[in-house]
Design brief:
Helices cover 27% and strands 32% of the residues. With 148 residues, it is α+β, with helices and mostly antiparallel strands. A five-stranded mixed β-sheet has the order 1-9-8-3-2, with helices on one face. Strands 4-7 form a two-stranded antiparallel sheet. The protein has one domain: Nuclear Transport Factor 2, Chain: A.
Length: 148
């Protein structure tokens, strides 16, 4: 039995937030259920979600990607999300069907986002970002002057 399966929801989300904020992308896999989905267009499974996080960490080594628990009720958690950084390394969008964008040296700062997490016995089963004009991956690209 995995450690996550023995955690209550409060411990699961608290440990996930701590690991996320410490930028330990590979360690986040332990918190995601086998059927995890990040509700994006297109939806991302666990490996794809972690891949996108790694892309951001690689291209923006100084990024401040940070989550904060806002509310936990039953198996649902609401988290606040903040992110900023400087584009100092290649932004490799090939995993998302794009190209590799060389460093621009530009910075971005996204508006605060809100994410709804669904927690299950096997870990986090889903993440649903709420609509956030100017946010998300498209917000980063827009602030860097990159069209996709």
């Amino acid at each position: 039995m995995s450690l996550v399966k023995t955690m209550n929801h409060e411990q699961l989300i608290t440990d996930y937030v701590k690991t996320f904020n410490e930028h330990h992308v590979e360690a986040l896999a332990a918190f995601l259920a086998e059927d995890f989905v990040f509700d994006a267009e297109p939806p991302l499974n666990a490996a794809q979600f972690l891949g996108v996080l790694q892309i951001v960490h690689n291209a923006f080594p100084d990024n401040t990607m940070c989550l904060q628990l806002d509310k936990l009720e039953g198996n649902q958690a609401t988290l606040l999300f903040n992110n900023s950084g400087t584009h100092t390394s290649d932004l490799d969008l090939t995993m998302l069907g794009g190209t590799i964008i060389p460093p621009t040296g530009k910075t971005f700062k996204l508006p605060e986002g809100i994410f709804d997490y669904i927690l299950g016995d096997g870990g986090i089963t889903a993440v649903h970002p709420r609509p956030n004009p100017g946010g998300g991956f498209q917000g980063i690209l827009s602030q860097l002057g990159i069209s996709r």
